[in-house]
Write a structure and sequence with these properties.
112 residues; 5 helices; globular; mainly alpha
């Protein structure tokens, strides 16, 4: 039945960092942007084919992107996809909130 006393570790909030992948912050940021893209597509109730036409991608590319295969996409390209979907993308640079240093994050005011 498995190990009766499994070790449980708390994650850092970034699965890519927990897996010790290089550029973990950038991967997490991309994942969050793709999540926003997926939410917009779902909210609009459009098919992947319609999304592909709108975004200038192929349907298989949209499928791969929405399934989390975003390695080939730059942050800039994901920003452009969001603006194509009618979203404003603001980049804010400020002092870090903690002594541990700066970080990348997505803050969305709405998904509609």
């Amino acid at each position: 039945m498995g190990n009766p006393d499994p070790t449980v570790e708390c994650g850092s909030g970034n699965v890519f960092a927990d897996l010790e992948l290089p550029d973990a912050d950038a991967h997490l940021l991309k994942a969050e942007l793709v999540n926003r893209i997926d939410g917009i597509v779902r909210q609009r109730g459009i098919t992947q084919t319609e999304a592909a036409r709108l975004l200038g991608l192929s349907q298989p590319d949209v499928s791969r992107l929405l399934r989390g295969d975003f390695r080939a996409y730059s942050l800039e390209r994901l920003f452009r996809l969001l603006t194509t979907l009618g979203r404003d993308v603001d980049i804010v640079i400020r002092q870090p909130r903690s002594a541990s240093g700066g970080r990348l994050r997505v803050a969305a005011t709405d998904i509609n």
